[in-house]
């Protein structure tokens, strides 16, 4: 069984949870143990995030994962103003920063500052490795995490809705962009603090969320019908 599979990842599932679920379906079809079936993803989503996860099924496809890990992406983002979070999202401990309500004009001006190539410091709670250890493991252990700023490109940011304290926008970004860091940087510019309260990925390169299947829609019996070829 070989092919590319587009999944709409549910909230509170890790990307590895989805891979494991699909691997068990492949195992049924191939009459193998799951550990002997090749399934991988091409870019993780945080557990609280939802949306497009691109999976590769079979040895011929998983060996091509590197081709798909550097693709641009599109996200639908909700951020909450007035507070910060230790993790940059809704999972962490919150701290009230300000009750100032930015005007729509101030918000648009802040968003405009982050269009184009920018230098961004990844969040401490990220999968980046420091001396062989994941940054989030160090952060959870209470150790100081220092990550260097790196260039990323934000092709566009479009404000969709603003009803204080919540802001909804979409953004097209390069691979390696951390939306949690973008939201925190916006909160700093607005002097209100901010954290990411929801995230949904709708595009990875040429792949679109509208063509994805939910985990609930998949089964060992119909999995093959949902696999597509990678040109």
Count of individual beta strands: 14
The CATH topology name of the largest domain reads Pseudouridine synthase
H/E series: EHEEHEEEHEEEHEEHEEE
The helix tally amounts to 5
Number of domains: 2
So what's the CATH class of the largest domain? Alpha Beta
Which percent range fits the helix content?
10-25%
CATH architecture descriptor of the largest domain? 2-Layer Sandwich
Task: Give the structure's gist in a few sentences.
The chain has 5 helices and 14 strands.
Task: Please provide a written account of the structure.
By secondary structure, the chain is of the alpha+beta class. It has helices at 15-30, 59-62, 104-113, 135-140, 179-190; strands at residues 3-9, 39-41, 50-57, 73-81, 83-85, 94-96, 116-120, 129-130, 133-134, 150-163, 166-173, 194-204, 207-208, 213-214. The radius of gyration is 19 Å and the shape is elongated. The two termini are 16 Å apart. The mean pLDDT is 91.
Task: List the topology elements.
Elements: E1 3-9, H1 15-30, E2 39-41, E3 50-57, H2 59-62, E4 73-81, E5 83-85, E6 94-96, H3 104-113, E7 116-120, E8 129-130, E9 133-134, H4 135-140, E10 150-163, E11 166-173, H5 179-190, E12 194-204, E13 207-208, E14 213-214
Parallel strand pairs: 1-14, 3-12
Antiparallel strand pairs: 1-3, 2-3, 4-11, 4-12, 5-6, 7-10, 8-9, 10-11, 12-13
